[in-house]
Amino acid sequence: MKWIDRFKQTKFAALLKKTLLYDVYKRDQKRRGRRERAIRLSGNESLAKGLVMDKVDVVITTKCNLLCDGCSHLMPYYKKPSHLDKDRVIASIGKLAEAADWFDHFNILGGEPFLHPDLKYIMEAIPAEKSRLVQVLTNALIIPKDPELFDVMRRKGVHVVISPYPSNEKTREQLVAVLEREHVAWNYYDRPWTDYGEPRDYHRSQREWKHQFFQCDEVCKNLLDGKLYYCFRCAHISDLGFCKHRKGEAVDLLKNTTARNRREIRRLMWRHKPLAACQYCLMGTGQNGSIPRGK
Known about the structure:
Layout: H1 2-8, H2 11-16, H3 20-42, E1 52-59, H4 86-99, E2 102-109, H5 119-124, E3 131-138, H6 147-156, E4 158-162, H7 169-181, E5 186-188, E6 193-194, H8 206-215, E7 220-224, E8 227-229, H9 232-239, E9 250-252, H10 258-269, E10 290-291
């Protein structure tokens, strides 16, 4: 590959790196790398021709017992937060599991998922047999007591991911003690938060908009109210009515056949056009730094 090394040193190669075409190339390289990693970790090389999803977040409630500044999922903007219908959530998980062959991460979250009264029934629907890692994300302010819920979490191999905030220092220790007593796996997520900005129209030019999309590192698809969105920010910006998602920016799983869902999910994952919601987000712009986590 000496000719490739020589080409990289040319002025033409330097000019190519400044074009959107190079941004597309780099983004596809990252996608392929993540996909290959997911297949390798699955231990199933036959997935090479299948529909492999890196990360999926399933939103089951917009109710939260915290109102954190800088919440990336925009929970404080919900004026009438509510639990999503159990049957609708279970049906959409089933349709997604039918269409996809493998999930590297399958996450249940909210809001605060332990607030949902039907959490154990929703967890029963998780496709753990085709997921490398199943997680439920919590702010650790609620200590579950239902023995049936713990039984489901053990059978499905659910990991409880705890976000350590200043406000939950006591309750998270209690939650850890309960999880260890019930033999449920857990871990802390203590990375800094990213500032996604206020959900307002930043009026970027077409070129800035496209460049932002190709620089964005968000890979986690979001399942909200029966629709699979490109990312969680797109899902909540659309759900809250800040802007409407356009054709091809979400897959209505409950209205489609399995074959059509499979085709549309694949198109969504390998999308090369920016989303309407990108104009309402700072991710990929270089303007989004780190902010304090939670309350």
